[in-house]
Amino acid sequence: MKEKAGETEEKEVAGFKSATSAIKEKVGRHRWWVVALLFAATTINYIDRQVMGILAPELQATFNWSEADYGFIIMSFQAAYAIGLISMGGLLDKIGTKLGYIVAVIVWSIACMFHAAASSVSTFSLARFALGIGESANFPAAVKTVAEWFPKRERALATGVFNSGANIGAIVAPLIVPFIALKWGWQWAFIITGTFGFVWLLFWIPFYQRPEKSTRLKHAERSYILQDKEETTQHLPWRKMLAHRQTLGICLARFVTDPIWWFFLYWLPKFLYSNHGIDLTNIGLPIVIIYLVSDGGSIIGGWVSSYYVRKGKDPVAARKLTIFMMALLVVPVFFTSFTSNLWVAVALIAMATFAHQGYAANIYTIVSDIYPKNAVGSMVGLAGFAGALGGVVFSAAVGLILEATGSYYIIFGIASGSYLVCWLSLKLFVPDNKSIQIT
């Protein structure tokens, strides 16, 4: 009897799995084509923003920029990005994601191409500012699109897929930009990469509609997408966030760590050129290695904290412990400017970028751990604004430090300790086992 019961149970389980697979098959996969477009947009977004950093040594020599001049140009992008973060959410809510994405991509693509006509610090700064305004809309628009096209159970996966485009863009840019610049000149590097956004629009404009209006969707997939109850879309004012010490801790953490990532994006090619003689002919391999390694940080950083949670540790405590581990991995980057071996420097920087991505996976998760759902979006925007402000300050400081000393050791020293300051901020202001309510 037991054997027969067991056989019956196995058949029931097999039948359930078969039915589940059939349901999934019937639902359709059209929504994943939407994610593919978001992934492509995010990849293009990062390619366009990285052209300047890769070409920095050549542009600095061509236009005789000082280090402070370059710092001001980079600061212009980050200031615009900060402004965009506090304004794009409301704009996208008003005009919708389809039109919002169209406007954003047109603005940043034209701004990217405009760099080719720039010839002074002021005109390059203007181009970077316009680029920052346009590019700041990408992540809010992508997140909003995912919310429109996916039920809650699939949103984390969909977000992870499109967000991986940032790392792909960081890897692709050093492979194609030097080739274009060496073959046709630096101006064409901006022009050609600027056209990528317009090519993307050729797919986005005819393809995208909200799921309620899309004629490409089967009824089963539309019902699947819209299965959740209507969610609140009310954006909470920042003053309500700032009343809680956790907000201060998270914003301070982003203020001191986001600038380090921006530094690697925009000054790494210049550092490799000045300290190791790496130019456009051989810059691809070192940078590709660094960002390939960093890509693993997101996965491993998320896995480590999840492992501790599965072992029974409080989620916030697990995130902070993982951030502490990542902070320790960044400390050796201090020695980067003291080594004459290119590959030792690459290894130290790769370890730091790996740790940053591991940290980033957890700092975003802490927000969703302790804030109510209707406050998560606003808190992410506020923290991103704090990080962008930190980038503005640090970019100006990097230019002045290099102008005064001609050396990167102070900058790498600041980078080596920033993540420990971040962890300390979280330790002091974000207690374990305590979520907050905001109404």
What does this structure look like?
- The protein has 439 residues and is mainly alpha-helical.
- It has two domains: 27-231, MFS general substrate transporter like domains (Growth Hormone, Chain: A, Up-down Bundle); 236-439, Up-down Bundle (Growth Hormone, Chain: A).
- Helices cover 82% and strands 0% of the residues.
- It has 16 helices and no strands.
- Helix 2 packs across helix 11 and helix 3 (67-95) runs parallel beside helix 5 (121-135).
- The protein is globular and about 60 Å long.
- The termini are far apart.
- 48% of the residues are buried.
- Residues 1-25 have low confidence and may be disordered.
- Fill in the CATH topology of the largest domain: Growth Hormone, Chain: A
Q: Which radius of gyration do the C-alpha atoms yield?
A: 23 Å
- Could you describe the largest sheet, including whether it forms a barrel? none
DSSP strand (E) fraction? under 5%
* CATH homologous superfamily caption of the largest domain: MFS general substrate transporter like domains
Overall form: globular
In terms of per-residue confidence, which ranges show pLDDT below 50 for 5 or more consecutive residues?
Answer: 1-25
Distance between the termini: 58 Å
Query: Got a strand count?
Result: 0
Q: Regarding CATH, which class of the largest domain?
A: Mainly Alpha
Q: What structural class should be given to the helix and strand makeup?
A: mainly alpha
